[in-house]
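stage 2 :: seqdesign
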């Protein structure tokens, strides 16, 4: 299908808007996928705070260059792009699950995390990371553990004294 120059410019502008909002971008080849499979992926991506779109290779190349991504011209097959607007690890996990379920019809080409290029293997490693809220909770727990221990150590002498006084007063009453 041939596009007019104006339509191509509008597509590039839309791609640039998606790239600008994205914390992570993942490119996949998707030969042989059905519309039903792609639609299911669209819904899964929306649920995790991202979007998936089939893009024109030459136009996305222009948009990537315009947005300052270091990209080589290596997009040859049909490209499906996942845009991570919130949590790149969760978006990569959704895409990784889709790749596993596609039975060889999809595979990662490459990705970008804050404009830094990731290989297909690095995207797969990113997909194995826990979601952002879990990582935050783990870090917070690690940070708070020494403080909690310190508070217990500081409070213990006073608590011991209170227990001794209570035991002594109960002994006098009996």
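stage 2 :: out
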């Amino acid at each position: 299908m041939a596009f007019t120059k104006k339509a191509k410019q509008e597509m590039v502008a839309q791609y640039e808007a998606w790239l600008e909002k994205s914390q992570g971008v993942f490119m996949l080849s998707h030969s042989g996928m059905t519309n039903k499979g792609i639609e299911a992926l669209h819904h899964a991506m929306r649920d995790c705070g991202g979007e998936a779109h089939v893009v024109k290779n030459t136009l996305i190349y222009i948009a990537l260059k315009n947005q300052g991504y270091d990209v080589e011209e290596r997009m040859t097959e049909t490209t499906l792009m996942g845009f991570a607007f919130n949590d790149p690890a969760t978006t990569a996990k959704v895409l990784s699950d889709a790749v596993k379920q596609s039975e060889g019809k999809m595979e990662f080409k490459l990705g970008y995390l804050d404009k830094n290029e990731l290989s297909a293997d690095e995207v797969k490693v990113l997909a194995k990371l826990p979601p952002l809220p879990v990582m935050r909770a783990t870090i917070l727990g690690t940070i708070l553990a020494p403080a909690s221990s310190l508070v217990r150590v500081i409070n213990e002498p006073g608590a011991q004294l209170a227990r001794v006084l209570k035991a002594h007063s109960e002994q006098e009453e009996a």
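stage 3 :: structure notes
- The mean pLDDT is 85.
- The chain has six helices and five strands.
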